[in-house]
């Protein structure tokens, strides 16, 4: 762990986030976890800065003495011409004075351009504080902006101290102010070597989840097969163990998995870079998930054309779930064994605790790859997500066959349509997954392997599986109302995610000019307008609304189809708590200011 360089109460020079100017600040606190200094500016502003953004006052004075003494002969000549002129307080000629003022004015204007301040005519589209919006009557944000960002006398003092007039000194001036030079010396700081904050109940909790998650999936599937799947009938009849496994089913699952892997390797679709890793490196990803979906649809169409019984999936659904669970466990063991040889910088920040069970569950290695084949990225969207759509289609065909229907029921059509939209949207916007915590923070272990390959396809399709054995009739007006509800949830989900992803990749995008944000010491901004100014996690709100719309076609005879809604609320509340903790450590005071500006987490005026 690096030693602390600056002490509390020490007066230093701190760089203002987003600019190249250094101001005199006082160190008030140091966080041993995030390694951020809390500093206080002269106007009372407090920010959390990295150590690389702070310099001692002596380093600035040393640069000044070097530059001011670089031309001793010139000073000597100046004195020899006017021996009787006093050293201090001597007057300049009118031409020299005008030239000095013009140079100073020009330098101040250039510095203003370097600062991230927008003109009032742009309606302050990018805020650097969490104060009230400009639409309020008492617009105090403009005053605070002026106090924090206007160069004023403090900037002029810094410029007077460090701005040198001769052209030969321009290079040295750039070294003082250049942000590039600051980050070249220490471009990226290594993350903490060990994970300290354990989630999911630590070692005991993760050990139990390894058994509890598969048991939950099997229990839900067995309940759906019952004639009376109510909670009062708690114990479903357990099938014989030999009926849970069939080698042919496992072989079909392997064919499916490797077929999707083949589609992933096809040289179609663009190649993009992910977010920077802790060592500064960016991995490349091929974006062709939507093409894989089209190829899969074509393959399924060919099978149906040749009279392949797709409802075979429904007849052997439990066996497919067991096969997927077994494969995910084998994959998780392989992932953990290979992670033991991974370099330190390639380990996941959340899965490097040193405890076998915990690291096995959460994932020890961040981005396990076989050559250019990224295992985590592949499993995130391909076999499970596309398999979810195929399972829903199999349930639709099974319903028609079992109930001798020429057309599927209206509830089954709604469930298939809503969830198909969700999957197609995810594949069409595949690049957006690169900015999620699953890719940037979580390792690839049992949690994600089981979630991607078992939980997503077999639990998310629970409504369609339920409708096969428990049909429900709804009217067209009710179907229209449920459709509107799903569209509202989808609109919130998609527009919120688009705002976040576009802002993370290019904050200066003209399409985002209307968004305002709070700067942080990490160089990133926290959006305080748009959907992210409405609640802190608007994408979670859209998810929950859509989950409710997926369950409503099943009626209210049983709570089982609403398990997904209950699970989703619990999952998102947990994720929200994790995100809150992670962001508070990462952004410090900026996150506290953001929480004051956006008080509601998921549900407006409720939570």
Automatic annotation (TrEMBL):
Enzyme Commission no: 1.3.1.70
Gene3D superfamilies membership: 1.20.120.1630, 2.30.30.140
GO BP terms: cholesterol biosynthetic process
Enzyme class (EC, first level): oxidoreductase
UniProt-listed CDD domains: Tudor_LBR (cd20381)
Domain spans labelled Tudor: 4-62
Keywords of the record: Cholesterol biosynthesis, Cholesterol metabolism, Cytoplasm, DNA-binding, Endoplasmic reticulum, Lipid biosynthesis, Lipid metabolism, Membrane, Nucleus, Oxidoreductase, Phosphoprotein, Receptor, Steroid biosynthesis, Steroid metabolism, Sterol biosynthesis, Sterol metabolism, Transmembrane, Transmembrane helix
Pfam families tied to this protein: ERG4_ERG24 (PF01222), LBR_tudor (PF09465)
Pathway annotation: Steroid biosynthesis; cholesterol biosynthesis
PROSITE patterns attached to this UniProt entry: S5A_REDUCTASE, STEROL_REDUCT_1, STEROL_REDUCT_2
Protein's membrane topology: Multi-pass membrane protein
GO CC annotation, single: nuclear inner membrane
Residue ranges, annotated region (Disordered): 53-138
Subcellular location: Cytoplasm; Endoplasmic reticulum membrane; Nucleus inner membrane
Compositional bias per record (Basic and acidic residues), positions renumbered to this chain: 97-108, 124-138
GO molecular function: Delta14-sterol reductase activity; DNA binding
Main location: cytoplasm
Family: Belongs to the ERG4/ERG24 family.
Protein name: Delta(14)-sterol reductase LBR
Organism: Piaya cayana
Gene giving rise to this polypeptide: Lbr
